[in-house]
Amino acid sequence: MTTITRPEGDAQPPATSVKALDRQMERSVIGESNLKRSLRRLRKHRMAVVGAVILVLIILYVLIGSLIFPESSSNFLDTSKRLMAPDAAHPFGTDQVGRDIFIRTIYGGQISLFIAVTAVAVQLAIGVTAGLLAGYFGGLVDTIIMRFAEAMLSIPQIFLALIAVRIFANAIPDFKIGGREFSNTLVVMIIVLGATSWMRLSRIVRSVVLSVKEQEYITAARSLGLPPRRILLRHVLPNCVAPIIVSATLGVASAILLEAYLSFLGLGVRPPTATWGSIISEAKEFLAQGNWWYWFFPAVFIVLTVLGINFLGDGLRDAFDPKSLK
Predict the structure, then answer these.
(1) What sign has the CA pseudo-torsion 28, 31, 37, 40?
(2) d(Cα 114, Cα 66) in Å, to the nearest integer?
(3) C-alpha atoms less than 13 angstroms from C-alpha of 236 in its C-beta half-sphere
(4) Structural element, H or E, at residue 176
(5) Which of 7, 97, 131, 271 is the most buried (most CB within 10 A)?
(6) Measuring CA to CA, how many Å separate 288 from each of 83, 105, 284, 285?
(7) pTM for this structure?
(8) Per-residue confidence (pLDDT) for residue 59, from 0 to 100
């Protein structure tokens, strides 16, 4: 009886190696989604991670701090302790009427972040809509929207904001939400910041739509008789998500800085609502007296927030860049 032996080179590979090879082949066939690939790039971006950590810490600071200290303590006046330097009882010192700056930065941070986020929401609503309509319909619609956007871009944003705040500052009365009293200028500031910063976003969205609407699946959707609204929302808009996310992230930083500029000029959110910018505006009268803590701590929070957002925005831009092969 003849025994057939298997050559050494044809030895059966281990079962574990076969399973690993099968999984690798399956991944290569199925592929990796764009979202997972972008998130993987984002996690590898060190500065983006640093920025995200900074933002998380600041958000926890303003949220947890408001659970520990009531809002009434941020507006509590004690003139006997006015302009006190930082100590154990008042880590950030006190202001001109004896209010604790540490607690005021907590509630002021809430308002500053709220203004920035909601202003960017207004910016997205206007800019994305304008970019979609201009890019998809073209012709006269594109001409009117883009020429108007270019006209607004030719005027400095802070100048537009100054005029709008001056005109509409007294158009809305003060209001209360959840027992907290807010200045009427809070709503005005949100609308002004959003309505004067949508132009660049609309141009970005328009450029993406111009390239997407020539794709075969858009032509097929038109041939099937789908209405333009459905084509824009279901097929065109998802391709604009990446630049919208990056623009929105960086827009938050710009809104925080612009609110601080307006507050420093005396046209920001009025009392009793406090923001980081309004605290610095109050401190400008005492800069020459050596009361450095009055402006220093709110300024640090503004700088850290803007840096964190810019770091995260750079990471998002690189992560969603389709030309990146990392």
Answers:
(1) negative
(2) 14
(3) 32
(4) strand 175-177
(5) 131
(6) 13, 22, 8, 8
(7) 0.81
(8) 94
| 315, 47 contact by CB (below 8 A) | yes
What per-residue confidence (pLDDT) applies to 57? 96
Among residues 229, 230, 237, the alpha carbon closest in space to that of 208 is found at 237
How far is Cα 91 from Cα 6, in angstroms, rounded to an integer? 80
Q: What CATH number does the domain located at 45-73+96-319 have?
A: 1.10.3720.10
Positions in the chain short of pLDDT 70: 1-35, 178-179, 321-326
Q: Report residue 122 as tokens.
A: 């207004």
Q: How far apart are CA 79 and CA 183, in angstroms?
A: 24
Q: Sign of the C-alpha dihedral, residues 273, 279, 284, 287?
A: positive
- 53 vs 47: CA distance, rounded Å: 10
Q: Report helix angle 292-319 to 241-264, nearest 10.
A: 170
Structure tokens at 153: 């871009």
Report how far residue 313's alpha carbon sits from residue 33's, in angstroms, rounded to the nearest whole number: 21
The per-residue pLDDT for 202 is 93
CB 92 within 8 A of CB 293: yes
pLDDT number for residue 179: 67
The rounded distance, in Å, linking the Cα atoms of 200 and 11 is 64
DSSP 94: B
Q: In degrees to the nearest 10, what's the CA dihedral of 158, 159, 161, 162?
A: 110
Chain centroid to CA 48: how far? Answer: 14
For position 91, what pLDDT does the model report? Answer: 92
What are the structure tokens assigned to 57, written together? 């810490």
- Predicted pLDDT of residue 17: 55
Q: At residue 3, what is the residue type? A: T
Cα–Cα distances in Å, from 22 out to 15, 18, 36, 115, 116?
Answer: 11, 6, 21, 52, 49
Tell me which DSSP letter residue 179 carries.
T
